Amino acid sequence: MTTGAITPKLVSLAWPLVAGNLLQTFYNLADMFWVGRVGPEAVAAVSLMFPTAWMFVSVAMGLTAASVALVSQHVGAGDDRKADNVVAQITMLTVAVALVLSAFGFVFRHPLLSLIGAQGQVYAYSLQYIEVLFVSIPFTFLFFVFRAVLRGAGDTRTAMWLMLLSAGVNVVVDPFLILGYGPFPEWGVRGAAIATLISRVIAAIIGLAILVKGDWGVRLRLEDLRPDWPVMKKLVDVGYPGTVDGLARSFAAVAMAALVARFGPIPTAAYGVGLRLMSVSWTVSGAVGQATATGVGQNLGADTPDRAAEVTWTATRGTMAVLFGAGALMYVFPAGAMRIFIDDPEVVAAGVNFLRIIAPFLAFFGGLMVVQGGFRGAGDTRTAMVLSFLSRWILRIPAALVLAYSWSVSLFGVPLAGLAWGVDGLWWAWSFSAVASFVVGVAWFSLGRWREGVVEKEPKATPGD
């Protein structure tokens, strides 16, 4: 990513990431497709548990952000041995953090479900689903870090093939474990979670084997599997804003799901299906943002910050163009998209309202994710974190409370009241926050305060040295 025309190199780096994320999306859509055959309550349970599970898994965002920033900048500076040491340190840190989170989530699963508003049969299904997913957290974390360190080294294709294998296993196993085809038990929602667990275990084991072999740009050296405290400290320093960023996103998703749940199982089910369809935008923009992080990191390591900036702007323009087209398709054919996953006419009608409001703004969701990728590649994970807080907690959640609900208070003698638009007010809050936070993100990146990077490089020799 440090030489040659930017667009072809960005496409070459991004398309396997897009393919991998599409596979992850297909992974999630397959779960929703088969769970939809169980009933609306099962769909509502998985819809609630998806953001809840990511509340824990998103901690890995900090680990992956630190991995990409340090590995890519060491590779860009030509110091592969230091990049290998980062791989070992992040692997140890990942295992420790994942085991703690997995145990914590399993112990407090009942209060957590009550907190987000799951009730009745939805509560029972949610419990079946989340108990298994907590067991899968360590394997999920390891696979995320595997993808991140290879991505930092510029290899995005190996992880794509492994994601294809993992998604394939999940898709094949889903109907057998959910609906009890053949000799298998009919586990319903729990079966979807077990299928996910099986696929994640396979991916994590193969990923570790690939890193130990070391033929793909970076290597997990067994002799490095002892704490290197300065590197650990750097990983934590770069990574913790990414973790806070991920938690902010996930808590906001859980809060939003809880706000939707107050309107009943029909809007909740429509919200879950709509989010899966929206994940098309996250699939593209998330992948391009990851490629952007690699490009920015390698160019800062090579002392070419202007090229790092151009990588980000090129990626943002291309992503938004694609997502404007995707949004147009969702706006024109919302009912058909919903019926792929569920036939219930009430859920489909609620989903049509969701997509018609959200679809025109998909490009702004995606554009912000690419700009955040630029910040993360530079190691400026704090700014990426602040943009997430701005988008979700400062703009989206307050706007949702104002637009969706009926209430009135007096603040310093000034009467304030909610507009009571109902569940559509929640969807408009999403759209408003996407546009406003994108504008702020672009302006902030333009200031150029991210250009220093986070790794120390040897001073370049000059004539006479």
| Overall pLDDT | 86
Q: What structural class do helix, strand and pairing data support?
A: mainly alpha
User: How many individual β-strands?
Assistant: 2
N/C terminus separation: 29 Å
Helix content: over 70%
- Supply the number of helical segments: 16
- Large-scale geometry: globular
Strand content: under 5%
Strand order of the largest sheet: 1-2
Described by strand count, sense and barrel closure, the largest sheet is:
2 strands, antiparallel
Low-confidence stretches: none
H-E order: HHHHHHHHHHHHHHHEEH
Tally of separate domains = 1
What would you report as the Rg, rounded to the nearest angstrom? Answer: 22 Å
List keywords for this structure.
single chain, 465 residues, mainly alpha, two-stranded antiparallel sheet, 2 strands
List the topology elements:
Elements: H1 6-35, H2 40-57, H3 59-76, H4 80-107, H5 109-115, H6 120-152, H7 157-179, H8 189-213, H9 229-261, H10 265-301, H11 305-332, H12 334-339, H13 345-358, H14 362-377, H15 381-404, E1 408-411, E2 414-417, H16 423-446
Helix pairs in contact: 1-7, 1-10, 2-6, 2-9, 2-10, 3-4, 3-6, 3-9, 3-10, 4-6, 5-6, 6-8, 7-8, 9-15, 10-11, 10-13, 10-14, 11-13, 11-14, 13-16, 14-15, 14-16, 15-16
